[in-house]
Amino acid sequence: MTNVAIIRCEKNMDRCPLTNCFRCLAEKKEGFSIYEDCTLAGVFTCRCPGDILNNLAKILKAKGAEAIHFCTCTFSKKTAEGWVMKDGGFCENIDKIIENLNKETSIPCVKGTAHLPKDYTLKTW
Ligand code: SF4
Ligand code: SF4
Q: pTM to 2 decimals?
């Protein structure tokens, strides 16, 4: 059983209660399909410019999180054709932010949770 945490973007915190993120985690689908079994360790909200993330990650680690997933809406957008990578999502620096977080805290990170775009291969650090 892997304890996974989710970090969402503050730009979406009043619009989406993570419904599909939680559903995919419970069903081990989309971004969580890499686990044989997983459970939720906690959720935090990133705030621009993202410099609180290292502290949030350390708290999540202390609470038992073994991996941190970043919500798909941070790098992907919903269109009439479904979720696409084109034009990105809420965060233009998401790769740099995740890379830095992984480097500073050594916590495995995964870019993606629910409704992964068709042309996207799950990226991990
Ligand atoms: S990835 Fe989807 S379900 Fe998760 S917070 Fe973003 S919009 Fe909501
Ligand atoms: S740094 Fe990126 S993920 Fe964090 S709140 Fe800002 S836009 Fe969202």
A: 0.96
